[in-house]
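Listing S7. Sequence submitted for prediction.
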Amino acid sequence: MRALRNLRKATLAAAAALLAVSPALADPVTLKVNPVDDDGRVTLGDVFDDAGSAANVVIASRAGPSVVFEAGQLQGLALRSGLQWNNPQGLRRVVVRQGSAAPATGGNVQTASAARAGATVEVLTYARSLSAGDVVQPEDVSWTTVQSHLAVGGAPSDAEQVIGLSARRALRAGSPVAVRDLTSPQVIARNDMVEVAFISGGVRLTITGRATRNAAMGEPVPVLNLQSNRTIDAVATGPGQAVTGPGAQMARANPTQFASR
């Protein structure tokens, strides 16, 4: 009996090994420069070059102008079909957009027929309720058909526009997404200790003080110098980081370039 059990275990292990896809055996693929689909069914062939026999494998349905994948999620979907994408660019997300076969109707773009009473339009809505301060993830939004009069002004035409932003207030599942309800995520809270950098002509000086208000990246944040009791006008560039002086205006326009300094 023990020999029979061992034989069954060995057989099951061999079957599992045959069914599993090893990265070493997977076929390498390259991400397309501009992934698009034309029929609402996103396939591996829409996303990758050299997908081969897996090109027709459907990995998502697109209800609106775009579908957003997390890079790791896309790697997993590819690997299940025997494809290996190494993500050499280090991308965080991949957006697959509607192709040229049909005009996009997402966001606040409405055709003449959609403007008529009783007509419908595709809008981006919240897939779950969000609390103030929550950061929007790809799975938190979805395209939904609603009556055209329910479409809000300032609605995004692409999910990528709102992913990574933070809710200004509590937002209910099913409600249309409006850009005015979202902001950049808060990186500095009131009373946080903040390192403020003064950068000019290759010279970088820093001082640490206490933030007197909350701030997102690129927003002004007054910082109290605890030694001199004077307030420094700075711009937030990351968690516990801010810049003042000549670089402050540039940081407001593009704060991420200062985040790694």
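Caption to Listing S7: primary sequence and predicted structure tokens for the chain studied. The chain has a mean pLDDT of 79. The CA atoms of residues 36 and 157 lie 16 Å apart.
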